[in-house]
Amino acid sequence: MPDLPDDVKDWIRYVFGACNQRTSRKMARIPTVHETSLDLTFIEHFSQFTTPVQLPSAWTIRLDTHYLGGGRHFGQWEIADIGLLVLFRRGGQLIRSKVGLLQSKRLYPVEQDFNEDQPVDYLRGFGRLLEEDPAFVRAVEPRKFTFTDASIYRALQVADTQYHAIRDYEKKYSIPVHYLFYNPLTVPFSSQIPIIEPIDLPAECEVGARIVPAAILREGLKGKSTGYCPAFADLTSLLPPPFGGTASLGGWRFEDFVADLLIECKDGYIAGRRDDPGLDLVFNRRAGPISAAISVTFDAPA
């Protein structure tokens, strides 16, 4: 595989870093936002970059997005919410392909119990928007939401069905799955609902979206009881280097994972053939366990 020029890696870091900023700022503005909404923001961001770009190095980059809706929309679990396909071409001819599978989980504010989209929400359709008066009153009550080291990822539970399904999938197909942890721009952080005056958001994304391999996370959570939900502090204290420690802030930054590890072939899964059974299970079945896919194609000059 040809070495990637600096302008290619810089462009990737810019585009994926902007996605990190966008989802993290959304969490800061809407602390109770659902994971599904963050995934949709994630995909919509990349849909704005689907026009092929040719850089000064003469390399061409093309992004494509495809949204299906996955297990959660059918009342089932998913192996991954988002698939990243990386295709390397030279003069238009495919020479290598890689895959990264991301299972997304959001950090919950301390004050919020579990609250995500449920099958009944999809069955009700638009009717769910016609809230009864008591529900509306509760929704606009003045409340403060805070993200701290004690905030937890409530949709991630040790030893539940999805937890074991990801473990079994990795064992059977030797394809790694990574957790995409949605976080606000910084931790600690707090916001008030309803918004009375403009929110003073941090200029820099200090924490934001972070990536941790599922196998590393399971190792770090060994000994935790069934149903345990990891806290933000767990991701910085339980995991071994380079994932743990305060300097990592709970895993790789999303854009660093893509630019430094995935496209540099230091992480992810190299797909040896188009009919790879492990990838077919995830990508090629309409009711399969995935919500969306993004492909990044690099075309080196012939």
Features:
alpha+beta; 9-stranded mixed beta sheet; two-stranded antiparallel sheet; 11 strands; 30% helix; globular
Question: Into which percentage range does the β-strand content fall?
Answer: 15-25%
Q: Please estimate the helix content.
A: 25-40%
Secondary-structure class: alpha+beta
User: Helix count?
Assistant: 9
Gyration radius, in Å: 20 Å
Secondary structure tally: strands: 11
Count of discrete structural domains: 1
pLDDT averaged residue by residue: 86
Main sheet record: 9 strands, mixed
Summarize the helix and strand pattern as letters: HHEEEEHHEHEEEHHEHEHE
Shape: globular
Distance between the termini: 13 Å
Low-confidence stretches: 70-75
Explain what you see.
By secondary structure, the chain is an alpha+beta fold. It has one domain (6-300). It has nine helices and eleven strands. Strands 1, 2, 3, 4, 6, 8, 9, 10 and 11 form a nine-stranded mixed sheet that branches. A two-stranded antiparallel sheet has the order 5-7. Strand 3 (82-90) and strand 4 (93-106) form a beta hairpin. Helix 1 runs antiparallel to helix 2 (35-47) and helix 1 runs antiparallel to helix 8. The longest helix has 24 residues, at 6-29. The protein is globular. The two termini are 13 Å apart.
